[in-house]
Design goal:
alpha+beta
Length: 280
């Protein structure tokens, strides 16, 4: 029994030593490495959007609107657009589980304005040319973070039609005032990252944790930050459903089926009313 106790204590001290060493390493890493917007970026993440807010008018420059032939072949296109905050009608939550990696997913928000105007805001790593994502590297200041502001025919169709990932598009239950505050908060942070770049972190500064931070800023303590759904965002729609954030009277299983948009995205890929069609 004493031998078992000694082995258990050694194991505990060993774990504590590893944790302590990692903490020291991360602290030193933060001292010697600094995020930058001045690197040779991938073409699809070369431009950072900029935003000007003038009362109810929000002007967004460089909304990405690429036209894809494949995930690596595309026509580069951006446009500028003015949105009237009085026209903001609805917020949508997008979940894209990653194939073959249980629990992992990309999440982002899309905002619906009157007259079938839609714009998406997606928090992503900003990849340098030749760089690929790995969650372990994401713990150690290897990627900057950016807010991609894009047309839905870009960010949704890229995922459903070309990456062939499953995509779920959920309507969010919220008030017009909170939707407005959420939109302003997100585009403001996109602007801030132009001047003050940040590192992505697999645990604390991701697509999902940033959405949580924005939502909690608008509705304090609405979403738990320390929840397994933040680490495994594939299941974040389940948490949103449990918290009453998805605007539906259906069961969760029925809602997942209804708001799974891949078939419609393929059917209406070239339809000028793509955003409306995938919601029908």
């Amino acid at each position: 029994m004493n031998v078992i106790k000694r082995l258990s204590m050694r194991m505990i001290w060993g774990i504590l030593y590893v944790i302590g060493a990692l903490c020291v390493f991360v602290i030193l890493l933060n001292i010697v490495t600094h995020p930058s917007n001045d690197r040779i970026w991938n073409i699809d993440q070369w431009r950072l959007p900029s935003v000007r807010i003038d009362g109810d008018q929000v002007t967004i420059h460089d909304i990405r609107n690429f036209r894809y032939a494949s995930t690596t072949s595309y026509t580069v296109d951006y446009y500028d657009k003015i949105f009237d905050l009085n026209d903001l009608q609805k917020v949508w939550y997008v979940v894209e589980p990653f194939s073959g990696i249980p629990g992992s997913a990309h999440t982002f928000l899309s905002f619906e304005f009157s007259n079938d105007q839609f714009v998406s805001i997606s928090v992503e790593i900003r990849k340098e040319q030749g760089e690929s994502f790995h969650p372990i590297k994401g713990l150690f200041n290897q990627y900057e973070i950016m807010y991609v502001i894009a047309d839905e025919q870009d960010v949704i169709k890229l995922r459903s039609n070309y990456r062939k990932d499953e995509v779920y598009l959920y309507p969010i239950a919220t008030s017009p005032e909170k939707a407005r505050s959420l939109f302003i908060d997100m585009v403001t942070r996109a602007n801030e990252l132009r001047e003050q770049p940040e590192f992505y972190n697999t645990l604390t500064n991701t697509c999902t944790t940033n959405i949580v931070a924005h939502v909690n800023k608008v509705s304090p303590r609405k979403l738990p930050f320390f929840d397994l759904s933040m680490i495994f965002p594939e299941y974040s729609d389940g948490l949103a459903y449990e918290l009453g954030l998805i605007d539906t009277d259906l069961s969760f299983e029925q809602a997942r089926e209804k708001y799974h948009i891949n078939e419609r995205a393929m059917q209406y890929a070239d339809d000028p009313n793509f955003s409306r069609k995938i919601r029908e």
